[in-house]
Design goal:
The structure holds two protein chains of two kinds.
Chain A lengths: L2 E3 L9 H5 L4 E3 L5 E3 L10 H10 L5 E3 L1
Chain B lengths: L19 E2 L10 H4 L5 H5 L2 H10 L2 E4 L5 E4 L2 H9 L4 E2 L8 E2 L19 H10 L4 H5 L2 H13 L6 E3 L1 H5 L1 H11 L6 H12 L6 H24 L5 H7 L1 E2 L2 E2 L2 H31 L2 H9 L4 H11 L4 E6 L3 E3 L2 E3 L4 E5 H4 L34 H18 L3 E3 L6 E2 L7 E3 L1 E4 L4
Parallel strand pairs in B: 3-12
Antiparallel strand pairs in B: 1-5, 2-3, 4-9, 6-16, 7-8, 9-12, 10-11, 13-16, 14-15
Classes of the chains: A alpha+beta, B alpha+beta.
């Protein structure tokens, strides 16, 4: 399982890096960034799902 | 004094002297579906039953007031408008009796909130860096200390006004620090906020005079920063460039006005509404005192249920849109609060569920105009609630009828008398 952010949709609300700081960070303008290659470890799955369902722009996908 | 001929004293901003004025219509609303007004006391006191009723029977309501406008109450319509910058312009974002001329687009009077593409992204990019979560975290220790100072002043008192004596001061102090304005100017900021956001139905000459006072103050601050440049947003804007050119004086003061006005009333409202909810909901208050780690989750629910900010747009061209006939220059009252209570989008939409796990609310807007200050607002709201819950034990409304709500597009308590069981 991996997470990715659609940069066309992301507006920098920051819900992903608030709710799943082990998977996402912010760039210098506040847009969400996937940390590393986005691989989600089993213990990070709950965080990953929280980020997906709380993004107001529907910008996060799990693949 | 540093010479900068952009800021040579000029007649203050007089946008309101041109553009189009409409007749001022006030008084009781006959039918909210055909005559809505966000400036009437019934709306200020409790807009949610009105919005819920409209969503059922007339999901895009109309009014002839303010020269004509529309009020969508379904999440999907609010989102569609927020995303559609081709059909809906931000050249005016305060719905009132005056429309700026169309040639003010795409910059608008207070960029970037008033800007449309393609200019918008450039004006926004200038400011994003100062408002990231990382940048804002540097303001947190001072914000926390200031919240404690405010509560220290409650020593020995049974009743305090949490809106006027607590919620109001927190965003004022923080934004004054960020802009480099004197912190003791707080009372003037309150006056500017009221002028811009609540004085909508005043006669034009009063509105112009009030706006002149704001822009004269901002020019004074610019000149002070030209004399003594410092590490703050005002000095940054004076030196900033777009397309290799320094910003115009109107852009600099317009952006300062935006940061000052939008940075204060909104968070003041969010803090006040959250405390109002906790004062009248002992179960939620006790749970948050027992589980302070739940504050960030609860806060998102307060933002959803009591979203303080409603925006506005202007329709660009005549069109048939989602079943109604919109005319060029009709207002759209873009109610994020109504969207946030749409049962088609949220389970138990009308309830406040402080441990709600799925909360895709639109309190900070959607699309390219996502609130620039959202990370600042969230920090201030979280710290204000954490300190309040830590310092104040039980608290309750002295009298529900004594709570007074602001009028207009930013909604929150402006008088919130609370009885404190024990403070210290």
């Amino acid at each position: 399982m991996k997470v990715q952010i659609d940069p066309e949709r992301c507006q920098g609300h920051g819900r992903c890096y608030d709710l799943a700081p082990s998977l996402f960070g912010d760039d210098e303008e506040g847009y969400g960034q996937v940390l590393g290659d986005g691989t989600v470890q089993p213990e990070q799955e709950r965080e990953a799902r929280l980020a997906v369902v709380n993004c107001p722009e529907h910008a996060i996908e799990v693949i | 004094m540093t010479a900068d001929d952009r800021f040579v004293y000029q007649a203050p901003e007089t946008d309101e002297e041109y553009g189009v004025r409409s007749e001022i219509i006030t008084g009781p609303v006959a039918d909210w579906a055909t005559d809505f007004s966000h400036l009437e006391p019934e709306w200020s006191a409790d807009p949610y039953p009105i919005q819920d009723d409209l969503r059922q029977r007339c999901p895009i309501a109309h009014t002839e007031r303010f020269g004509g406008g529309w009020l969508p109450t379904r999440y999907e319509d609010v989102a569609a408008i927020a995303y559609d910058t081709e059909r809906f312009s931000s050249r005016a974002i305060i719905m009132g009796n005056w429309r700026p001329p169309s040639d003010i687009a795409p910059i608008g009077g207070s960029p970037p909130i008033s800007s449309d593409p393609p200019f918008h992204q450039h004006a926004r990019k200038l400011l994003l860096g100062a408002f990231t979560k990382t940048a804002i975290s540097r303001q947190e220790p001072a914000t926390r200390a200031f919240c404690h100072e405010l509560i220290d002043k409650f020593e020995g008192r049974d009743v305090v006004d949490a809106a006027a004596e607590y919620a109001q001061h927190i965003p004022m102090r923080v934004i004054a620090d960020m802009l480099g304005f004197p912190p003791e100017d707080g009372p003037r900021f309150a006056e500017f906020v009221e002028s811009v956001l609540e004085g909508i139905n005043l006669p034009p000459e009063d509105r112009i005079e009030r706006m002149e006072r704001l822009f004269t103050y901002l020019l004074d601050q610019v000149n002070d920063h030209l004399d003594r440049p410092r590490d703050d947003i005002t000095s940054y804007l004076i030196g900033a460039e777009i397309f290799g050119q320094k910003l115009t004086a109107d852009h600099v003061t317009g952006a300062m006005a935006l940061l000052l006005i939008a940075g204060i009333d909104t968070t003041w409202s969010a803090i006040g509404s959250s405390l109002w909810h906790l004062a009248r909901t002992p179960g939620d208050r006790e749970r948050l005192m027992a589980e302070p780690g739940l504050v960030p989750t609860a806060m998102e629910e307060f933002l959803r249920a009591y979203a303080p900010v409603t925006m506005a747009r202007l329709v660009k061209e005549d069109m048939h849109w989602h079943g109604v006939d919109m005319k060029a220059d009709d207002w759209i009252l873009l109610s994020f609060p109504a969207a946030n209570r749409d049962p088609a989008q949220f389970d138990r939409a009308g309830e406040v569920v402080i441990d709600r796990q799925v909360n895709r609310h639109a309190a900070f807007g959607l699309g390219i105009h996502r609130c620039l200050g959202s990370h600042l607002a969230r920090m201030e709201l979280r710290v204000a609630l954490e300190v309040w819950l830590e310092r104040i034990g039980e608290f309750s409304l002295t009298d529900p009828a004594a709570v007074r709500w602001s009028a207009g597009q930013i909604r929150g308590p402006r008088a919130l008398p609370l009885r404190l069981a024990a403070s210290g």
